[in-house]
Amino acid sequence: MRVLLCPDKFKDSLTAAEVCDALAQGIKKSHPEAVIQSLPLADGGEGTLDVIRGIFGGDWVKVLVKDPLFRPKEAPYLWIKEDRHAFIEMSRASGIELLTNEERNPALTSTFGTGELILDALNQGAKRITLTVGGSATNDAGMGMAAALGFRFLDEQGYELAAKGENLAHIRQIIPSPIEAKLREIQFQVATDVRNVLHGPQGAAHVFAKQKGADDEMIRQLDNGLINISTFFPNIEISQSPGAGAAGGLGAGAMFFLQASIHLASEWILDLVSFDQHATQADVIISGEGKIDVQSWEGKLISTVIQHSQALQKPILLVCGGLQDVNKIPTSMQHIPVYPILVPPMSLEEAISQAASHLRRIGENIML
């Protein structure tokens, strides 16, 4: 039996590679004859660069940047010198995991540090820059990123605005960057884990800002800010493009300020790792992530892996830390077995801290 392990990370607990290792150890106990292939995956958020480096190699470049609250923070990006291609994971500089729960406030956070990473890559001589945008702490539509690249944002009195989410609504003029011509020479692409538009009920603020620390009133204000900055876009297609609302609107900001193209990260990653080729040789596929909920079935990594597996007529099983929104699983996916770690009376703390041992147990008992 050939088993393909292709999970995402278990956030706050295990990397995708560690999930593979734990499952493989368990499976080998009960199925010593199994031939196991590990193919760690990512969704554009934390861990994506590790997956890419495993494919292409490359060197880490460390840069002193500003974190989401403008504090100094060392952040790396991946540099492939031969191709002059930089891969930048925005969560390394502007991610929610860089903040404590008490610090999370998308009115005050900024993507400025992500812009500083881009600027360093330009100075390295990059001709291609790929920006992965999951796991953000921000809702500034890329205002901070653009400010780091030399764009200036003025209010109605002509005063320059600090580049953070609460100031989107006050923008009345955008001054182009002095390096705008240089930016146009670079091929930018964005890999996003969501397909949300920029503003409105399905936009960045209404769907994602609450988990970043916003209350209902802040969400309304942030959405108004996203609407305001969209009035500076040359056409409505930018704000309404799938993925424009990713990372608090950074998707739209990258399209506007960088002329970037947007791609669904899960499809992009599966193509990079030649998923279909590996899946064709497998008898069973096991994927998963830390939390499977309603978002998992709507274009994120899990749903994309399932779609590819079903197209290849391969059986698939899922593992996860926690399983939520069971009543919202699409009909076409309700038959897929799911093995969660967190089952009452287990505590969340145990599920996170002991994830590896529980995955070994699941691997040993999983029905292949």
TrEMBL record:
Q: Name one Pfam family in it.
A: Gly_kinase
List the molecular function annotations (GO) for this entry: glycerate kinase activity
Q: Does the keyword Oxidoreductase apply?
A: no
Q: What is the lineage of its organism?
A: Bacteria, Pseudomonadati, Bacteroidota, Cytophagia, Cytophagales
- Record's keyword annotation contains Glycoprotein: no
The cross-references to InterPro entries, in alphabetical order and at most eight, read: Glyc_kinase_flavodox-like_fold (IPR018193), Glycerate_kinase (IPR004381), Glycerate_kinase_RE-like (IPR018197), Glycerate_kinase_sf (IPR036129)
What the entry lists under NCBIfam families is as follows:
glycerate kinase
**What protein name is recorded for this chain?**
Glycerate kinase
Any idea which UniProt keywords this protein has? Kinase, Transferase
Name the Gene3D superfamilies for this protein: Glycerate kinase, domain 1, Glycerate kinase, domain 2
User: Where are the coiled-coil regions?
Assistant: none
- Which protein family is it in? Belongs to the glycerate kinase type-1 family.
Known EC number: 2.7.1.31
